[in-house]
Amino acid sequence: MKLKNLLALFVALLLSLSIILALSNNTLFPSFGNVDLNDRVSGEYLDQTNIDDVGAANIVTAIVVAYRGFDTLGEVTVLFVSALGVALLLGSSAKQKRLELDFKPNFMLRVGSRALFGIILLVGLYIILHGHLTPGGGFPGGTMIASAILLLYLADDRFRAKIKGFKILEGVAGSLYVIIGLLGLLLATYFLQNFLPSGTLGDLLSAGIIPIIYILIGLKVGSEISGIIDNFLTEEESA
Amino acid sequence: MRNEVKKVTTFDIISLVVGVILVFIALVAINAKKLMKAVLFLSGLSMLSVVAFVMMKAPDVAITEAVIGSGLVTALFVFTLLATKKKEETK
Amino acid sequence: MIQYAAIVLFVLGLYGLVINRNLIKMIVSLNVMEIGLNLFIISIGFVYDGVAPIITSTNTVGAVLFVDPLPQALVLTAIVIGVGTTALALAIAKGFYTRYNTYDLSKAEEDL
From CA C110, how far away is CA A139, in angstroms rounded? Predict the structure, then answer.
């Protein structure tokens, strides 16, 4: 390696050593693993009355959708803006066709991948629907649906998904999220309040609006990332 | 200064091994000469970090990072690198 | 030990971002930085002998110690935003290749 690179690596390791030393003998930063949860905000999230109030068995889901639902709305907006940017840079209004490579998949790959597509789609839907009972939720389930579409794009070089339908689905799902928040403002006290009843802990139809919001988020994320993949793999049709 | 000796548990040994391998794979991914090698080592780094997430008892984060790191980010990098091969062939 | 590895990973990503001239390697270093940061944030919330924060019939609040659920919720958001950033950066890199025919920043010819 050149001398300049070696010097930069040495300065970087010196920076990491100073960060580790600054954090190790500190009274405000507890050491690894010895944390008392009642000194932090999380003592209130793990309180039995608050858990019965929200009704979700997965506490991380309750934090992401119920306690800090406004931050999740901001995250959905950031994903929307990045998909918009990719479509602006790589898409065009002319008619598009698939990218031409010199690798042609054969008949077995093209037909056999359709069976695997159904299985991956089903696992993704299961993870979205049971977001408030088991680990997972809307975000990994939505990206699993997009992975199933990626499999179809990779295995068949003549395949293009119906992008118009995906864009309409994405817009409708995003608008419904904001409309449910506004319904909370009209029917109850504040924006994005949990206005449906909580039910018993552990049922499939429990925890208020949390399953509905996760289904909307899963559909939106899945169709956005499918749109991004389609933009990467197509080019203009040269007449 | 500690007065008693802390017992070395299995958790400590596994976290030491995983930490050292993480730093090595990151060094190779940053200093590789070929672009495809850097992308593949980034995918390996992502998969190893899922092991670290499961060790720290965070299943939601582990599922999300596994799906995104293995499927989506690697595929997007490979599609960007394919654009160079295509242009070189049509010349 | 995982905390030290996470800090070193973050600093190595920063070094890679400064030292590389190729666009694709810069985006790879950005991703390495993000992985290190997510590992560090989750290691803040770990409790020895704790279990994952999901309520089942045997793991109730009074009986068992839980790990901290708040850093996990924040990192879930951060991972998804990292995907959005990487996708947009790769689209810009692809447009750069179409215009200048190279990925290297120092070899791109200036347009007068």
Answer: 42
